[in-house]
Amino acid sequence: MKPHQILEMLQSVAAGRLAPEQALADLAELPYADLGFAKLDFHRELRNGHPEAVYGEGKTPDDLDKIVGRMLENHGRALVTRLRPEVAARLQAHHPGTLWHERARILTCGAPPEREGGRIAVLAAGTSDLPVAEEAAVCADWFGHDVHRCWDVGIAGLHRLLGNLEDIRRADVVVAVAGMDGALPTVVASLVRAPVVAVPTSVGYGASFGGLAPLLTMLNGCAPGIGVVNIDNGYGAAVLASRIARAVGPAELGIPRGA
Questions:
Q1: What angle do CA 192, 194, 196 make, to 5 degrees?
Q2: What proportion of the chain, given as a percentage, has pLDDT over 90?
Q3: How far apart are CA 56 and CA 63, in angstroms?
Q4: Where are the beta strands (DSSP E) in 106-216?
Q5: CA–CA dist 35, 185 (Å, integer)
Q6: Among candidates 149, 237, 144, which has minimal Cα distance to 198?
Q7: CA-to-CA distance for 40 and 64, rounded, in angstroms?
Q8: Which of 191, 125, 202 is nearest to 157 (CA)?
Q9: What is the CATH classification number for the domain harbouring 221?
Q10: Which of 23, 68, 154, 203 could share a disulfide with 125, CB 3.0–4.6 Å?
Q11: Against a cut of 0.85, is the pTM above it?
Q12: Are residues 158 and 234 in the same domain?
């Protein structure tokens, strides 16, 4: 339940349009709804501004069907990550209006988001990094931000990054997704004023150790202003970027992004 929904509920009780008993019943599940196999945290958006997302891996189709149905009933929206295509198809059949983002492996359900302030640029070093980059971009868009996608701009061809620099500098936050040597976030942070959220991916040959090598590169980057999330964690990067974008925008900084 969103803050404005609670306010509308209280106003309806005050105006006599809603019985106090019904309001009490609606608020009783506000902290969480217990489905037995899952406890849905409906209070999360009130606490930190983002509703609970559903991590799809490890959950049965029946589990996800019940979770999505309950979240749509309470929130009017649901976000499910790391879904298999066949499970996504089932959820789409049971819940009209859902969208399947194939490359991102994400299902978005319900009403479109209220637009938030802050522009987020999502960069992918290579095409193989796109599943994680798209996860970040889809989530950031679902949170209500203006998202600029910039693909295949890894440092193996630095001119490709520099050719897109003007657009990247307009962002309030930059999400840089990279596998292999993971050097893209450090280069970006040396070129822009915006904070950079670095996302290591498990893309690479044997010595990348499933994403550990780019993770360590990003943690040891020599350019300041970088925050690093876990390997392949596009969703976590989108949440961090969204919170930064909501807190600090160009007007508050007083400096044009392209300067």
A1: 95
A2: 62
A3: 9
A4: 106-110, 119-124, 146-150, 173-178, 196-200
A5: 41
A6: 237
A7: 12
A8: 125
A9: 3.40.50.1970
A10: 154
A11: no
A12: yes
Distance CA 218, CA 182 (A): 6
- The β-bridge partners of 34 are 39
228 — phi, psi (to 5°)? -115, 135
Q: CB-based burial of residue 254 (10 Å sphere; 0-12 exposed, 13-18 middle, 19+ buried)?
A: exposed
Give CB contacts under 8 A, 24+ apart, made by 87-93: 87/56, 87/61, 90/61, 90/65, 91/61, 91/64, 91/65
CA 69 to chain centroid, in Å, comes to 21
Query: What is the Cα 204 distance to its own chain's centre?
Result: 24
Q: Say if strands 146-150 and 119-124 run parallel, antiparallel, or are unpaired.
A: parallel
Q: How far apart are CA 206 and CA 194, in angstroms?
A: 33
193-238: pLDDT as tens digits: 999 999 999 999 999 999 999 999 999 999 999 999 999 999 999 9
Query: Where are the extended beta strands (E) located within the chain?
Result: 33-34, 39-40, 54-55, 77-81, 99-101, 106-110, 119-124, 146-150, 173-178, 196-200, 226-228
Counting the structural domains of the chain, the total is 2
Contact status, residue 97 vs residue 227, Cβ threshold 8 Å: no
The residue among 73, 93, 110 that closes a domain is 110
How many helices (H) and strands (E) are present in the chain, helices listed first? 12, 11
The set of residues, in sequence order, having a beta carbon less than 8 Å from that of 206 and lying 6+ positions away, is: none
Domain edge (last residue) among 76, 110, 144:
110
| 256: its two tokens | 């044009």
